[in-house]
Amino acid sequence: MVNQNTIATAALRMSRPTSAFIDTQAFVANYRYAKSLSPGAGALAVVKANAYGHGAVVLARALADGADAFGVACSEEAMELRESGIRNPIVLLEGAFDPAEIDQAAAQGFTLVVHTQSQLDWLLAARPVLPLGVWLKIDTGMHRLGFTPEQLATAHARLAASPNVRDVVVMTHFARADEPDDAATDRQLARFAEAADGIEGPFSLANSAAILAWPATRDDWIRPGIMLYGSSPFDKPHSAAAALAPVMRLESRLIATHDLAAGESVGYGGRYTCDRPTRVGVVAIGYADGYPRHAPDGTPVAVNGRIVPLIGRVSMDMLTVDLSTQAEAKIGDPVQLWGDIVSANEVARRSGTIAYELFTRVNRRVHLVYR
Ligand SMILES: *Cc1c(COP(=O)(O)O)cnc(C)c1O
Q1: How many domains does the chain have?
Q2: Segment 213-258, tens digit of pLDDT
Q3: What atom in ligand 1 is closest to the CA of residue 211?
Q4: Ligand 1 pocket, 207 CB below 6 A?
Q5: Is the CB of 280 under 6 A from ligand 1?
Q6: Cis peptide leading into 128, omega within 30 of 0?
Q7: Centre of ligand 1 from the C-alpha of residue 72, in Å
């Protein structure tokens, strides 16, 4: 077991029982599942933002033998992987932020997304030690990053003719692939096909939602992110997402229990008032650990493996649950906030957010424990 976040002594490490258990085998299995859906395609394992809060170095090491490439947001994230011995190709998904990064990328073997004219100009004007891999991004409807479809042919030809460029993957990104019944993805796909007419590829279109729900988008390279962490990108059940295995179990323990009379309120603002005599449990995790402060009364929490409702406002270091159905629950008993019993998607939905945000907000105070 590795405890990446802990800088204190072993004795201190155990002081607060708030941990995220990370199942590296589930991560590898989810990657294999993504690959199995797209036979023959390369798969860029997206490990940006510290692997969506799961710890990029350990997960990249777990996958190093199998990963076709890793995707990160910036060269700091890519350097962290290189410095820990990861030799796989790494794609910088926002490309270079200034011309100096081109030289660094060449020296480190990073592949650069090119999504603006200035990034393209920097690359063509550079004197890199080795030619770079490039992922040329076009905007087919997301309207965030990328060249227009009309600019693709020219940009592609300039890159292909440059001695600074080793090879070019043409990519785009979907805005609504997590809505399997919405036609927006079909429109983006059609725009891509039209723009890329005459270019042989390779192409990369699909994020997790597209890999799972839009088979026509799985092309030469898929780009799975959230599905690698075992979380469905859809807000409704989807058959292709059922095979995903959760990677993170966020856990803590009960640190106090109380029996309150009807009419008593719990926590800041007295948001929850007991309508009957109520057994209340206090759990050592709060919004400063990354649990959402917006979680409403009734959000599921598992105590001793059984679901009870959250009651009262989430505090910085603690939250409270209704233990009325668990008379025997006591101090020290295990609590799961999300994982295999409570789905992170359900906590996210109730709190008005998505599992991506819950995972990436898990704070460094939470011990990451790898199995
Ligand atoms: C983050 C990211 C992904 C992964 O998206 P998921 O929805 O997590 O699968 C894929 N492609 C790009 C360009 C990204 O930035």
Answers
A1: 2
A2: 999 999 999 999 999 999 999 999 999 999 999 999 999 999 999 9
A3: 9
A4: yes
A5: no
A6: no
A7: 9
